[in-house]
Amino acid sequence: MKYIDAREYKLEIGNLEESSFASLLKSYDSCKKVIIVDENTHEHCLPYLITTFSELAEAEVILLPDGEENKQMSIAFNVWEALTEYGVSRSDLIINLGGGMITDMGGFIASCYKRGCDFVNIPTSLLGMVDASIGGKTGVNLGNYKNQIGVFSNPKAVFIDISFLSTLPLEELQSGYAEMLKHGLISSRTLFDEVAEQMSKEEFSVDLLLKAIEVKNGIVKQDPLEKGQRKLLNFGHTVGHVIEGHFMESLQLTHGHSIAIGMVMEAFLSSHFSSLDDSSYAEIESTVFSHFSVPKFSDKDIQIMVAMLSNDKKNSKGRINTCLLKSIGECTYDNFLAEESFMEMFMHFKNLQINLN
Ligand SMILES: NC(=O)c1ccc[n+]([C@@H]2O[C@H](COP(=O)([O-])OP(=O)(O)OC[C@H]3O[C@@H](n4cnc5c(N)ncnc54)[C@H](O)[C@@H]3O)[C@@H](O)[C@H]2O)c1
Question: Total domain count for the chain?
Fold first, then answer.
């Protein structure tokens, strides 16, 4: 079992049965327990949980429809109504069992319910383990705008058990690797190289997972409310979120896929507006493109995506806020660029596609 100092909550990595999850459940002995799952984690992860931990035999299970398009307020309302119907009180416990969609949304639901109910995250996707379940960001989307409604709120504990990954589809595994690549790009050239190599391997590396978790946890611990360096974790996300949101219904790209393309595009901006050299840019592009394709987009798509960028919550004075790389492993935040720069960036990738086809 690996115990990581997350300051305000427990962060344990290893076999769930050897973790302090059982003793945490005992401390909620006379309380109600509610487990939030989506369709896939209901099928693949819930049976293990409720048969292994007798304290959960009586737990209420709330099943949410799977997919990013369901990370919406309307679903949260349904859950709050269900919690009220079950008579859940503030001293009870909510257990989020799923990927980032479930931990983001379940954390948000728990944090607002009766002004805050305790919750625990048990991430079941790689992306959830390496990123979404850690750091206290919770929320839901507002239409196509990602995470527009949300609060910072820490769980009581996060339990990471990689055995849940055995049923995760390959493209979801790759999605998690995209966030791990990001952790390398913003902090360590060695980590970037290691993740890039790992993406083609069959055997999973717990050591690499730990390294990537340490990057996220280390940054979040120093800046929990994203006043400064936590913004570095948004590298690839200014553009990536817009791609994910815009194509949410049509293409349903995984979160990591969208972020991977966002990282290439923001690296492209970095080569124009920061010191990222051409060979580093080419390396990032070829690493990402060997696993993720750029979605096809039209001039109309570009117009919509640029309009969405202009509404990003990080903007200031009409300029779009983004992270830029100085080199692989070194990133800066709070770079404010004009709308036209993003327009030209999208045009570049549109033309690139035309040339490739
Ligand atoms: N809070 C944060 O700091 C943070 C950071 C990064 C991403 N996020 C959010 O996380 C979400 C993306 O996370 P995600 O990629 O885990 O999405 P997800 O929760 O939608 O999971 C991806 C898919 O994998 C399935 N799945 C999960 N675990 C499984 C398992 N063990 N076996 C089989 N199928 C399984 C899910 O049902 C879903 O279909 C986005 O909403 C993103 O905005 C949040």
Answer: 2
